[in-house]
Design goal:
alpha+beta; 21 helices
Length: 619
C-alpha cells in the first residue's frame, strides 16, 4: 500500500535538504512544487532519499542539463513523495502523474496539436473508417496513426477509399438509409445500406485493410493481382475491372512509401539528440520493411538526464497504441528492463529495446538521428512568444499558464462568462471554465459581471494563472484591479486586458494596470497573436455557452442549469405548475409554497429565470 508524506518549506535547495529528514530509502515517486503550488517536476527513484540528495549537491560542470536542473531547484518551494511497493510501480505512477499534471521540467511529448488517427469501428456489422482527433482506447475500435499532417491523413483516406471501399456514413445514417448514396456511384462504398454487398465480402475488405496497416501491403497486392487474373480467366470482367483498379491504386501507394528496411520487420526507431539548449526526440516508424512515418518532439524544457528522458518518452509514445516487437533506441533508458516489461504488458508480447551498432538497423538509427537534429518549427515557437510577452508586459518570467475571461449576454439578459486557458503557449482545455451570472450578481452589467466572475475564479482551489487576460478595455481592467485588492497576494495573478483596434487594420491593444497608454505591439507580433488566440477562444467558449442556455430556455431542460435543483425538484416543480412557462411566472414565495423550495433556492431560481430571453430561439 503506497503512503504519502508532504513537506512545505521555503524555496530553494534548502527545502530539499529539510525534506530529507522525512524521506525514506524506499522506492517511490517525488513531486517538486513551486511557490504557487504547481507541480514543476515528477521523478521516480529506486531509493527516494538518495535521489533527492543528489539535487542538493553542487553542479559538477556548466552543461545544459546542469543549468536546467539548477533553474528548477531554485523554484522548489515544497516536496511531496509517494512510497511504492516496487520500482516498477514507481515507474507506472510517474508516467501517470506526468500525463495528468504535465510538469514544466519533465519530458512532454505533447504539443498544441491533436494529431489525426484512422478509426475502424469494429463493433458494427459493417465497420466504418473515419478520421478522429482523440482516440478512446475503451471503445473497442482499432486506431491507426498518428499522422503529423491532417492534409496527409485526408489524402491517405482518399487513397484508402479507392483500395478498400468501406462506408463513411454514420451508424445512424446507415440504419435509416434505403438507397445508395453518391459514394456507391463513384465506387468508394459498396453500399451495405442497400444490401449491395454481403457481410462476408465486406468483412474481407476489412481484413485486407487491417493487413495493409499491419505492413502486409506487398502480399496484399499480390493476392489482389491473382484474384484479378482469376476473375478475368473466368470471364467475370466487371469484377476483374474492380480488382484491377484496387490493385493499381494499392501498387501506386506502396511505390510512394517504399523505403527499404531489414527483413520486412516492424520496428520503431527512437533517437534522442542533445543540443546546447536541450534535447529533441525523433520517432521513425517502420512497418513491413517500409518507413511509414516520422515525428519530432522538442524537449528543450526537460531538466533530466538523457536516460530518464528516454524512459519517460517511451512510455508516453506508446500511451495510445502498442509498440512493435523491436524498438531501436539511441540511448538506453535508465531502467531498460522495467521499461521493456511495461511495454511488453501493453503489447501482450515481448518487446525488445536494442542499441543498433551496425548494418541496416544502424542506418535506420542514423536516419532518426538526422531527423532529431533538425529543428521542425518555423519562426518563433510558443516559448519564444512567451518570453517576448513577458518582456513587453514587464513580467519577471515567461507566463507558463494564462487564462482569458470574456462576458457574453444578449441585451443584458442571460449573462454568462467563458474562461479559456493556455499552458506553455498551447490550449489547455481541461482548465476551461464557464459561469452563469444571475441578476443580483451583475447580470446585464459587464463591469460588475467581470468583477463577480473574477472573484469566483480566484476563490476556488485551482491555483491562479501566471497571467490573466480580460476581454475588454480600461473599464474591465479597473474592475479587475479592485476585485484583486480583496484577494490574498498568492492568489493575485498578473493582469492585462485586450481591446479591439480603434479602426480597421489597427492592431488590438493591450492595457496594463496603472498605465495610461496601451503596450506598443505590432499586428504581426507573436506575443500579441498569442493573446488574441487566447481571447478568441474565450469569446467562442462564452458565446457557445450563451447559445446553449438560450436553446435550453425553450424547454424544461433549462432547470438543469440552476444550482441546487436536482431531478426530483425539477419533477416536482413541473408537476406542481404544469409547465415551464408557469414556473417562470411564479414569484419567490409561490416557488417556496407550491414548489417546495427553500428560500435561497427559490430566490436563485427566480433570478435565473428572470434573466432569460426566450422570445426567439437562436439561429
Amino acid at each position: 500500500m503506497a503512503t504519502t508524506q508532504t513537506t512545505d518549506k521555503p524555496r530553494g535547495a534548502e527545502v530539499i535538504k529539510q525534506a530529507l529528514a522525512h524521506v525514506p530509502l524506499d522506492p517511490g515517486v517525488y513531486l517538486m512544487k513551486d511557490a504557487r503550488g504547481r507541480i514543476i517536476y515528477v521523478g521516480k527513484a529506486k531509493h527516494l532519499k538518495n535521489r533527492l540528495t543528489s539535487y542538493t549537491r553542487p553542479i559538477s560542470g556548466p552543461t545544459w542539463y546542469a543549468n536546467k536542473v539548477a533553474t528548477m531547484v531554485k523554484q522548489v518551494a515544497s516536496v511531496e513523495f509517494v512510497i511504492t511497493a516496487s520500482e516498477k510501480e514507481a515507474l507506472l505512477l510517474e508516467s501517470t502523474l506526468i500525463k495528468k499534471h504535465r510538469p514544466r521540467y519533465n519530458a512532454d511529448l505533447r504539443d498544441d496539436k491533436s494529431y489525426p488517427y484512422f478509426r475502424l469501428s469494429l463493433e458494427h456489422d459493417f465497420p466504418r473508417l473515419s478520421l478522429v482527433r482523440r482516440p478512446k482506447l475503451s471503445d473497442g475500435a482499432q486506431y491507426y496513426g498518428p499522422f503529423g499532417s491532417a492534409g496527409a491523413a485526408r489524402q491517405t483516406m482518399y487513397l484508402l477509399q479507392r483500395i478498400f471501399p468501406l462506408r463513411r456514413c454514420s451508424d445512424h445514417t446507415i440504419r435509416n438509409r434505403a438507397r445508395p448514396c453518391l459514394d456507391f456511384e463513384t465506387g468508394r462504398c459498396p453500399a451495405p445500406c442497400a444490401d449491395k454487398i454481403s457481410r462476408e465480402d465486406y468483412a474481407l475488405l476489412v481484413k485486407q485493410m487491417q493487413a495493409f496497416f499491419a505492413g502486409q501491403g506487398e502480399e496484399l497486392a499480390r493476392r489482389l493481382q491473382e484474384e484479378m487474373e482469376k476473375a478475368a480467366q473466368g470471364e467475370r470482367f466487371e469484377e476483374a475491372a474492380l480488382l484491377r483498379d484496387r490493385w493499381q491504386a494499392l501498387s501506386r501507394t506502396l511505390e510512394r512509401q517504399r523505403v527499404s528496411a531489414p527483413q520486412e520487420e516492424d520496428i520503431d526507431v527512437v533517437a534522442l539528440h542533445q543540443a546546447e539548449d536541450g534535447m529533441r526526440l525523433a520517432q521513425v516508424r517502420v512497418r513491413g520493411g517500409q518507413v511509414v512515418g516520422s515525428r519530432v518532439h522538442d524537449l528543450s524544457r526537460a531538466a533530466q538526464e538523457p536516460g530518464e528522458t528516454m524512459s519517460q518518452a517511451l512510455l508516453a509514445l506508446y500511451e495510445l497504441h502498442a509498440p512493435p516487437p523491436l524498438v531501436l533506441v539511441s540511448q538506453m533508458p535508465s531502467d531498460p528492463s522495467l521499461v521493456a516489461e511495461v511495454l511488453g504488458e501493453k503489447a501482450g508480447r515481448k518487446v525488445e529495446l536494442r542499441l543498433p551498432l551496425r548494418g541496416e538497423k544502424r542506418k535506420l538509427m542514423d536516419m532518426a538521428k538526422l531527423n532529431a537534429a533538425q529543428p521542425r518549427h518555423e519562426g518563433p515557437g510558443p516559448a519564444a512568444a512567451l518570453e517576448r510577452l513577458a518582456k513587453k508586459l514587464g513580467l519577471a518570467e515567461a507566463p507558463q499558464t494564462m487564462e482569458c475571461l470574456d462576458i457574453s449576454h444578449l441585451g443584458g439578459s442571460l449573462t454568462v462568462a467563458g474562461l479559456s486557458a493556455m499552458r506553455e503557449g498551447a490550449a489547455d482545455k481541461s482548465a476551461y471554465r464557464r459561469y452563469k451570472v444571475l441578476g443580483g450578481e451583475g447580470g446585464g452589467d459587464d463591469y460588475a459581471a467581470m468583477a463577480h466572475v473574477l472573484a469566483r475564479r480566484l476563490s476556488g482551489d485551482d491555483p491562479p494563472p501566471d497571467l490573466l487576460i480580460l476581454d475588454g478595455g480600461k473599464g474591465q481592467l479597473s474592475m479587475a484591479v479592485q476585485a484583486l485588492a480583496q484577494a490574498a497576494p498568492e492568489h493575485a495573478p498578473a493582469l492585462a486586458s485586450i481591446a479591439k483596434g480603434r479602426a480597421p487594420g489597427e492592431p488590438d491593444r493591450i492595457y496594463l494596470p496603472q498605465r495610461k497608454n496601451p503596450v506598443n505591439l505590432k499586428a504581426s507580433d507573436p506575443a500579441l497573436l498569442l493573446i488574441m488566440r487566447l481571447r478568441d477562444e474565450a469569446h467562442r467558449f462564452a458565446v457557445s455557452y450563451h447559445r446553449l442556455l438560450r436553446k435550453k430556455a425553450l424547454t424544461r431542460s433549462i432547470l438543469e442549469e440552476v444550482p441546487g435543483i436536482g431531478p426530483k425538484k425539477r419533477s416536482r416543480l413541473l408537476k406542481s405548475f404544469g409547465s415551464l412557462a408557469a414556473v417562470k411566472k411564479a414569484g419567490e414565495k409561490e416557488l417556496q409554497e407550491r414548489g417546495g423550495l427553500d428560500e435561497s433556492t427559490a430566490r436563485r431560481l427566480a433570478s435565473f429565470l428572470a434573466a432569460l430571453d426566450t422570445a426567439q430561439p437562436p439561429k
